[in-house]
Amino acid sequence: MLFYDSPNPAPNPRRVRIFAAEKGIELSSKEVSIPKREQKAPEYVAKNPRGQTPILELDDGTVIAESVAIMRYLEAEQPDPPLFGTTEREIAEIEMWNRRVEMILMPAIAAVWVHTHPFTAALPGRNVEWGESNRPRVVEGMRFFDGSLEGREYLAGSAFSAADILLLTTVDFAKFIGLEMPSECANLLRWHERVSARPSASA
Ligand SMILES: N[C@@H](CCC(=O)N[C@@H](CS)C(=O)NCC(=O)O)C(=O)O
Predict the structure, then answer these.
(1) What is the best residue among 52, 74, 120 to mutate for testing ligand 1's pocket, by most ligand atoms within 8 Å of CB?
(2) Which tens digit of pLDDT belongs to each residue from 172-181?
(3) pLDDT score at 148
(4) Between 3.40.50.300, 3.40.30.10, 3.90.1150.10, 3.10.290.10, what CATH number should domain 2-77 receive?
(5) Where does 88-202 sit in CATH, by number?
(6) Nearest Cα to 101, choosing from 23, 168, 50, 161?
(7) Where does the GST N-terminal domain lie (predicted)?
(8) pLDDT per residue over 24-49, tens digit each?
(9) Ligand 1 contact, 67 CB (< 6 A)
(10) Ligand 1 probe mutation, 53, 123, 172, most atoms within 8 A of CB
(11) What's the pLDDT score for residue 55?
């Protein structure tokens, strides 16, 4: 199988790299350069019509897009250590936090990135006003996660999980585009230090 990857700061491929590192899985990978727009090349779009990275191409030619779907494939292939939970409660809680990262924080950060950042200035359909209006939503989102991390080691409880990977890659990408974690978000900052110290975080 072949993993189509893009280097940092792209957050979605990084999710999969961290996930694989946590499981000790070595993925054969091929780099897709976003600055060179290789994700929009016809041969890549034939594999993923969304024209985005990452994808995982299986040996039978099946293409799995969407970072969380790839993570789930790897979890099913190699269940240990479990990163999507094993009990009904863990599975549901990790899913809940994954969805909250993707629905609360990611869209606001993506709006600032796509509509205001100099690196995306050439994209069609930019709306700077809309991008700017999302900055407070990012802060609000980070405060929500800060409050949620009160008294807990990891986002979904006492064990490191896929939810931590989603939040880590999201706040690191936010930082890359100038959206720092607010200094008063002590729980979030402590959590960030903890998960960033894991060897997988360098992926
Ligand atoms: N929901 C998708 C998002 C994929 C995505 O937005 N990928 C970014 C890289 S982090 C990308 O390919 N951006 C270039 C583009 O959209 O043209 C996932 O989780 O994999």
Answers:
(1) 52
(2) 999 999 999 9
(3) 98
(4) 3.40.30.10
(5) 1.20.1050.10
(6) 168
(7) 1-82
(8) 999 999 999 999 999 999 999 999 99
(9) yes
(10) 53
(11) 98
Q: What is the average per-residue pLDDT within 127-142?
A: 98
User: In ligand 1, which atom is closest to the CA atom of 53?
Assistant: 12
Residues 167/145, Cβ–Cβ less than 8 Å: yes
Q: Is 38 exposed, middle or buried (0-12, 13-18, 19+ CB in 10 A)?
A: middle
User: How far apart are the C-alpha atoms of 87 and 77, rounded to whole Å?
Assistant: 18
Sequence ranges of the domains in the chain: 2-77, 88-202
CB 81 within 8 A of CB 40: no
pLDDT at 64: 98
Determine what percent of the chain falls in helix, strand and coil, rounding each to the nearest 5.
55, 5, 35
